Amino acid sequence: MNRKVIHQLHQLIEGRNHQFVEEIRGENVDELVEKKINMNKERGAEIVRAFVEGDIIRTSRVEDHLYIDYHQRCEYLIKLKDQVYLEEQLESRRATFLDNQLIEDNAFEPQEQEQEMKINEQQIREGTKMTHNRSYNRLEAVRYAERWWDDYNPQYRKFTNNCTNYISQCLHAGGANMNGYPNRSSGWWFRSNNWSYSWTVAHAFRWYLSGANGGLRGEEKESARELEPGDVICYDFDGNGRWQHSTIVVDKDANGEPLVNAQTTNSRMRYWKYEDSTAWTPNIKYKFFRIIV
């Protein structure tokens, strides 16, 4: 690849790294950098150190334009009151070059899209239990979430939009019971090369948790502060009733607010509100679920 192109990409990533911790920033501050800084400031937190590196995934050329897709790995050392913790994130970005000159660089955060199906909310919640009831081990669910947040367990199928599949795996690792097999429209389950809609699709998962009558169940809470590690948050970024994302609580910050892990945009110890996401809109809606089995 052209040395000039690589040099510009390196400079871009290095400059973005400095923006997170510099007190005085230039005019061309990355939008997501500004969002993250402002979000943390509002909650009384500060990014005291940042590390950003890039890994090129693919390149493509259309006439005079060169497109470079890359993963940007970010680590943020965040201080909140007397607490210091590390947030990590794998961000997908595309840099565009014209005649070997960088002209644009954008992040994109894929959202889980609802499959073409009509959801029968009652049917999703029903099903015959596949296993005997077990207690939910929150520690094991969090351990799984920490182990696999930036990797993929080969025992399960990996999806392009993998967020709900990952959360389902975490809950099952904690002892949540599958139910409803083999009806894909019923219950919550995964077996070999088959799975329920609620296992992999954010919208179906949210409705399953709202009223399942067997196996894994969710108890709705009014606020994020009521959640504990091992609980779940569902996201409707556009506020239009189509639920697009799921996260699992892995810790609480010094304010008593959840820190979450997620995939699709793979994240660890991320502040639950997602105001630093490209998907966030002022119309966002959340559902907070205490997991019970």
Topology of helices and strands:
Blueprint: H1 3-19, H2 31-42, E1 45-62, E2 65-80, E3 83-98, E4 101-107, H3 121-125, H4 138-148, H5 163-173, E5 190-191, E6 194-195, H6 197-200, H7 202-209, E7 217-221, E8 232-236, E9 245-252, E10 258-262, E11 267-271, E12 285-292
Antiparallel strand pairs: 1-2, 2-3, 3-4, 3-11, 5-6, 7-12, 8-9, 8-12, 9-10, 10-11
Task: Characterise this structure.
The chain is α+β, with helices and mostly antiparallel strands and 293 residues long. The protein folds into two domains: 3-107, Nuclear Transport Factor 2, Chain: A; 138-292, endopeptidase fold (from Nostoc punctiforme) (Alpha-Beta Complex). The chain has helices at 3-19, 31-42, 121-125, 138-148, 163-173, 197-200, 202-209; strands at residues 45-62, 65-80, 83-98, 101-107, 190-191, 194-195, 217-221, 232-236, 245-252, 258-262, 267-271, 285-292. The strands form two sheets. Strands 1, 2, 3, 4, 7, 8, 9, 10, 11 and 12 form a ten-stranded antiparallel sheet that branches. Strands 5-6 form a two-stranded antiparallel sheet. A hairpin with a 2-residue loop joins strand 3 (83-98) and strand 4 (101-107). Helix 4 (138-148) packs across helix 5. The N and C termini lie far apart (53 Å).
